[in-house]
Amino acid sequence: NTATPSKPLYLGLDFGTSGARAAVIDDEGRLVQDVKRGYGDGAAADWASAWRRVLYELIHSLDPAVRSCVTSVAFDGTSATALLVDPRDGTPLAAPKLYNEAQAKEVVAAAKALAPPAHTATAPTSTLCKILGWWLGAAAAAPPPLLLHQADWLAALLHGMYGSGISDWNNALKLGYDPETESYPAWLAEQPFAPLLPARVVAPGTPVGPLEPRAARETGLPPHCLVCGGTTDSIAAFVAAGVTEAGQAVTSLGSTLAVKLLSTTRVDDAAYGVYSHRLGDVWLVGGASNSGGAVLRRFFTDQQLRELTPRLDPDRPTGLDYYPLPSPGERFPVADPDLQPRMTPRPEDDTLFLQGLLEGISQVEAAAYDRLATLGASPLREVLTAGGGAVNPKWTAIRQRLLGVPVRPAAHGEACYGAALLARQGARQ
């Protein structure tokens, strides 16, 4: 996927759950080249080594003419994936803790004793719980280790400033960092493990520093190439969609349904799993439902979905009023761990049944945006769609009717493209 490079170019690197992708864009935002790599079968035995190897593989697989024009680079990584490193050279001192690794009950209890009630950093998978798990497990060594998120560590492999402990607003949120005051709150800064926290937390896309000479030699990137502040994978995907104004939102229609809305007001409500990331001078308010594409998979194959979709009639609602869930329990837009799926009665006509399910998921989406408005977020004006559901025009028509605002596919949905936009932003600063 290559076009002729025009200088300067910007590189975004996305390290996801199963593999990594790189996107190179030009000043106009055109995609010049993109490449991807899996981590390989043995990755779980040593995640850090796999990430480092794939980082170099991705960069080396770029066309030499493209690589030589890369002016800046930015990373995104999975949220709350973290590792302890030696501040002298970045060597991992313990196996990384991945985004979905819930910590022990006593660790979560310790986090809840520190943080304000219902803080997002007290979730069992949060980075705060992970650093507490290491600390309580006496992982402290000489010299004292440093905590870095996945994206922080990968960026440090290029800029070489390990000891500075550089992170970004979005990755540091689940550590307890407050992006509104741009500081760690007192309840966190006063802890005995506070010296392990990243000392410098920057806005995503902030220029951090040039490549260290060794990294320039090993990657073939220009020595003057600038490393910029990164973000998390879901925020990078949101940035990729090109949303810029309050009231614009992105719905991700994957196996689950996630909504993110740009708002002038910060909204946090742990009861619904709703919290806000800072993006420039506005807030990115998000929540996720358990409803989504995974429910469709229970009833239909890809082939059946392709055959049935043309028969859907968005202008004639079925009136079935489903609440499609893969299993009991919902947290947003309804906070009810015992909420039962509602997918009966099932009509004999599969087309009607599919349309009923799609209407049900769309009603959940509409209720999600209503909930954000009730909590104080900016009113919804437009929805861009990412994920597999974005390519279904009949479903889009159903959603537009229920949401009452324009709905269109996002031009770009890949997190690596969003990271490349942050790299471009950094170079322009």
UniProtKB/TrEMBL annotation:
Keyword Disulfide bond: no
UniProtKB keywords: ATP-binding, Kinase, Nucleotide-binding, Transferase
E.C. code: 2.7.1.47
InterPro entries the UniProt entry points to: ATPase_NBD (IPR043129), FGGY_C (IPR018485)
Molecular function, one GO term: ATP binding
UniProt xrefs under CDD domains: ASKHA_NBD_FGGY_SePSK_AtXK1-like
UniProt-recorded name of the protein: D-ribulose kinase
